[in-house]
C-alpha cells in the first residue's frame, strides 16, 4: 500500500524532505539536542524485513500485493540512510529477514544485498553502519549445504564486513532449531563474535515468547558480560 514511497522519486524525496529530515532536526525540549543528535537515540532501522517485499527474493509474502525490485528497495534504503547521515550523528541499519540476504559467505546465502557496494552507488553516504539480521528456527537448515543460523555461521565465516546484531530471535527457551535455551543461544551468538541480540517480541504476539520469558536469560548474560553490554554515554557513529 506504500509502494510509491519506494519507487516514485518525487514521493520518496517528499518523504525524506518533509517528514524524515524535519524529524531529525526537531529540537528536544529542555535539552541542547535535536532528535537526530540526542544520545538516547542509538540508531535508526530504516525498514524491517524488506526482503519479503522484494521480487528477487523469491519469497514475497502473500499479503504484499505491490512488491518492488531489489534495485528499487536498495535506492530507497540508500537515500534514506544518506539523509540520516547528513542530518544526524547516529547509526543506521535495517532489519534483514535473514542472513540469507545479508551475507556473502553464510551457507546457502544469496549475497549481501545491504553492503556498501550495493547501496553507495545510489547515494555516497547511503551505507549502513551495522547490520541487523534475524534468526528463527526455520533458518537452522541442515548445517552443511545451507544454514542462516548465527550459531552455524560465525561472524567471520559469514563474511560480514560490519558489526552484526541479531535483531530478532525467539524470546523463549526451546524455540530454536535445536531446542536450545535462550541463555545458550545468547552465549553462542556472543562466542561467534556478533555485536548483540534483541528478542522478538516484548509483549508476545506469536509463539516466540515475550519479555517475561526472556528476562532471566538476558539478566544473567548482562551480569556476566557487564563490561561489554553496558551502554556508555557519548558513544556515537
Report on this model:
By secondary structure, the chain is of the alpha/beta class. Helices cover 30% and strands 11% of the residues. The chain is built from seven helices and seven strands, in the order ααβαβββαββαβαα. The protein has helices at 3-7, 9-24, 70-87, 116-119, 182-191, 211-224, 226-229, and strands spanning 43-48, 91-96, 102-103, 111-112, 131-134, 164-168, 196-197. It has a five-stranded parallel beta sheet. α2 (9-24) packs parallel to α3 (70-87) and α5 (182-191) crosses α6. The longest helix is centred in the first third of the chain and has 18 residues, at 70-87. The chain is globular. The two termini are 33 Å apart. The model has no long low-confidence stretch (mean pLDDT 95).
Tell me the overall shape: globular
* Count of individual helical segments: 7
Low-confidence stretches: none
* Topology pattern, helix = H, strand = E: HHEHEEEHEEHEHH
Let me know the average pLDDT: 95
Largest sheet, order of strands side by side?
Answer: 1-2-5-6-7
Strand content bin: 5-15%
Helix content: 25-40%
Compute the number of strand runs: 7
Can you summarize the main beta sheet? 5 strands, parallel
Give a brief outline of the structure.
The protein has 7 helices and 7 strands; from the N terminus they run ααβαβββαββαβαα.
Features:
237 residues; two-stranded antiparallel ribbon; 7 helices; 7 strands
Topology:
Elements: H1 3-7, H2 9-24, E1 43-48, H3 70-87, E2 91-96, E3 102-103, E4 111-112, H4 116-119, E5 131-134, E6 164-168, H5 182-191, E7 196-197, H6 211-224, H7 226-229
Parallel strand pairs: 1-2, 2-5, 5-6, 6-7
Antiparallel strand pairs: 3-4
